[in-house]
Amino acid sequence: MTLKKHSRRSFVKTSALASGGLLAMSMPWGAYARYADDTIKVALVGCGGRGTGAAAQALSVKQNTRLVAMADAFADRLEESYKALTAKSFKDWSGEAVSVATKVDVPPERRFVGFDAYLKAIELADVVILATPPGFRPAHFEACIKAGKHVFMEKPVATDAPGVRKVLETAELAKQKKLNVVVGLQRRYETSYKEMMQRLHNGEIGDIIAGQVYWNSDGVWVVERKPEWTEMEYQMRNWYYFNWLCGDHIVEQHIHNIDVFNWAKNAYPVRAQGMGGREVRDGKQYGEIYDHHFVEFEYADGTILNSQCRHIPGTMNRVSETIVGTKGRAFTHNGHVITDLKGNRVWSYRKKEKELNPYQVEHDELFDAVAKGEFKFQDAEFGAKSTMTAIMGRMATYSGQVVTWEEALNSNINLMPDKLAWDALPKVLPDANGLYPIAIPGKTKAV
After folding, report:
1. φ, ψ for residue 422 (rounded to 5)?
2. In what order do the strands lie in the sheet containing 65-72?
3. In the chain, what are the domains?
4. Under 8 Å between Cβ of 393 and 276
5. pLDDT of residue 89
6. Residue 33 pLDDT grade (very low, low, confident, very high; cuts 50, 70, 90)
7. Which end of the chain is more exposed for a tag (fewer CB within 10 A), N or C?
8. Is 288 in contact with 277 (CB distance < 8 Å)?
């Protein structure tokens, strides 16, 4: 399996409406506000915490950016986001306080709510931020590229194989249209990781033959069900615990560590097998996802990656990567370090006096390319393939079977609901006791 080389992108400035399935829409507010010629107009699709943070970072770049439209399925989430962005001081995703209120120009008529809200927002922008739950990403990404928009989209980029195939197809269209796409796998924009990876690719630890990657933590938030919510609204509010929206935490979070190893190898695994389940986090509020996964990924040259992720309070917390080569090892636990095979340190990353925030760097570099008219970023391809790696891992743990890359990528199991509406039903539903069906290794068909 080989990686396609990244080509360079040039900027194509366009305000054209979407084509190929995007319907032209009238704007009841008339022509939207006129700005200076160098203004880069931004739309935010998905107004949760990460989306709000991403918008603040897009408005913190040195270019003349302006947020002109916002979209979310929920009006309350959108209004909370708008309030945060227009406050005197906003604390972004990394904890830094920023002030972007003067760059927010989103009157009520440009705040769109509902399942189709994204279509109305993207037509007003030059750059679109996609930060909804990842199940929606393939459709939203396709709409943006067909409409001729540059994109920043959060990871993962899909939750099932049909979604990954859609993103890969759209990535090719983005290349043809010379549209920049940055994916929120921010380690690829972090100085310490970049310096270490350059050394690995230069052969400092020899041929990479093994690795261990971890995302072990206590877990994340839970949203309790309200009696007035439909099943669709409940699952979307508590989205982390449903695979059509999240993909399970091996996909939603652990993709970061898996992507680091794929990056180091410049390759993707050819098969996977593993185990997982629900030992502690087994209540109905946790939907259908596991609380632990352990996967053995195998690459074409025989390299083995052992991957573990866990959401169990009171256990070892670790989020890092270890990469083993024929001449040495690289570690990202407690700093970025390279040793020889005897454990002698041969390099360690020296922190800069002012470390660059990788969450901000993603946007700095994207908007610099857009402003200069450069075609520079095509992250969608590696974002999709690392997403597929994590999905393949989930398929292996859910089924208990050996799963090949070809089987995983060509799977026709589509997790998305047949219809998106508040009164429509998702494909996974609770039983009479409110409990959701859980994958059973050896019985569940996951591919």
Report:
1. -65, -25
2. 111-113, 65-72, 40-45, 127-130, 150-153, 181-183
3. 9-187+359-379 (3.40.50.720), 191-353+387-406 (3.30.360.10)
4. no
5. 81
6. low
7. N
8. no
